[in-house]
Design brief:
The chain is mainly beta and 95 residues long.
Length: 95
């Protein structure tokens, strides 16, 4: 069963669905940027989340990793529960 990150923030009042099964790594590269790299042949397959500044430098990364752990151990009937990031995102881009 494919599992998904179903990302929601109240500031954006929208959800974004991202495949969670093929995530290779989750790295917060800056106070305002978190990158999800996907398991594929092309190294450039990644999703970049631009969010409000995170003084800790790891809050969004840790939230996504914790959600991924819960997601992968949950029932197949719960394939895309909503996750609210600790900081509002301003954009999600694919490269």
């Amino acid at each position: 069963m494919i599992k998904y990150f179903n990302i929601f923030t109240y500031a954006n009042t929208a959800t974004v669905l991202l495949n969670a099964n093929r995530v290779k790594s989750i790295i917060q590269t800056a106070a305002t940027t978190t990158v999800l790299k996907y398991n594929s042949a092309a190294d450039a397959d990644q999703v970049t989340i631009t969010h409000a500044s995170d003084a800790t430098g790891v809050a969004v990364q840790n939230a996504l990793i914790a959600h991924l752990e819960d997601l992968m151990s949950s029932s197949y009937t719960n394939a895309g529960p909503i996750i609210t990031l600790p900081y509002a995102y301003s954009s999600i881009g694919v490269s």
